[in-house]
Amino acid sequence: MSRWRIFNCIHCVMAVVLACTTNSVSRAQSPADEPLTLQARTRVEVAPDTDRWHSVVKPMTWTPSETCIVVCDMWDDHWCKQSAARVSEMAPKMNEVINQARARGVFIIHCPSDTMDFYKDFPQRKLAQAAPVVETKIPLERWCYLDKTREGEKLPIDDSDGGCDCDSPVKNYRAWSRQHPAIEIAEQDAITDSGEAFYLMKQRGIQNVIVMGVHTNMCVLGRPFSIRQMVRQGQNVVLMRDMTDTMYNPAMAPFVSHFTGNDLIAQHIEQYWCPSITSTDITGTAPFRFADDSRKHIVIVTSEPEYKTEVSLTQFAKEELGKDFKVSLVYGDAQDGSILPGLDVLKSADLALISVRRRTLLPDQLKQIQEFIGSGKPLIGIRTASHAFCLRDKPAPDGRADWVEFDRDVIGGSYTNHHGEGPETSITVASNSAEHPLLMGINLADLKGKGSLYKVSPLQPTATPLLIGSIPDTAAEPVAWVNHRSDGGTTFYTSLGHVGDFEQPAFRRLLKNACAWLVERPAE
Q1: What is the pLDDT of residues 433-458, one digit of tens each?
Q2: Cβ of 475: how many Cβ atoms within 10 Å?
Q3: Three-class SS state of 242
Q4: Which of 38, 334, 388, 470 would staple 47 via disulfide (CB 3.0–4.6 Å)?
Q5: pTM over 0.85
Q6: Residue pair 111/124 in contact by the 8 Å Cβ criterion
């Protein structure tokens, strides 16, 4: 053999070895081998029978080969044209999520119910039909209805009118013929609208199910391949809450925004069925949001045992804010009110409302509040917020942090104490403030301070008084003002907030005015 041929042979062998080594490294580093880290949000009741819930996010890890995505009823059309338009808006983003999940090794099951005739000759349909039947302890029902023993007497929205939010809906005809064409069906995917989905999962050793699609209050809960059924069959299930929509008409109870209705159903699922995630866990990009969802996000933080604002603010949010705002509620822990489970939601807030009394927080939680305020975002404080994050005349205990300057620097007051219980506080408009937008629509003759008058004078030079409170034989005190902070943000504070104050429409109007005004104001 010539030296040239020997050299060529050696060169070929080396090339093969190098190729094999490169392929091995490539496989080892393939995204399909990387676990999915999902930020799973659940809701846990603050204390039994309170109907107030901590919303807590914890990471969990799933193996892609043991995970599937169920695409529920993303039809090409719907008898509710508003619904069909939202599906068309969401479908391209959903396709992006599906493509990235598929590339990471997640099995995709397309479930456009009532359209199997369209797909009868598709190999993906035949794949589902070929899955061996699995005996189940609980029958795979064609529809799983509301489980009253588990999730209560009714859903948090009234969808008895069909849920269509069109001006003139034409109800209940089969407008769909296939899955929305913007969602690609790959060669390795499956198509079904029945319990075949579960058979496929068992055949492939899949224990983890990500559900996306429409509609959350109907098919996403009720179909045989979806949340109620899969949870009952023992699967690990999550809802991708930004890749879904709800059949809800804002003209029906609880008379909130369509998108707030969608949030309420996601929260219901988190309470009674399974956690939720967002598409960010797959794509690394921001969660999907419908173009018409213009709501600003208000986070209400309440932890004070004296005035029961965990009750009054929850009711206020439900009755007054849901039509115009996205609202998240953060409550103090039942055993230690200085711990605020779920405070991470503050990262996405446009406005925070604080009702906290003498809490010394975990350092990382106080840092979250300080960073929110330091960013120049607006704040509302009510009543005990003037002494929210410090103890009286003593430092924070070990392992906790306080913010003694909060009243001076953020609220803009000088709280020292309060007058004793006594007569109602009479309220008048501060000088030159009668035309302030915060006071629009408020009849001060209908507003009285039901709790003791706070001693807050003098206000800081950065604060502008709006309302003045008076009781007999005592110097008047500001009871509502605006503070223009050094970070460029704005705080509205009122020392009102007693249980009796929330019973007055004028006080609730004042708080709602503050929410609307502050989220529209740019940082200075």
Answers
A1: 999 999 999 999 999 999 999 999 99
A2: 10
A3: strand
A4: 334
A5: yes
A6: no
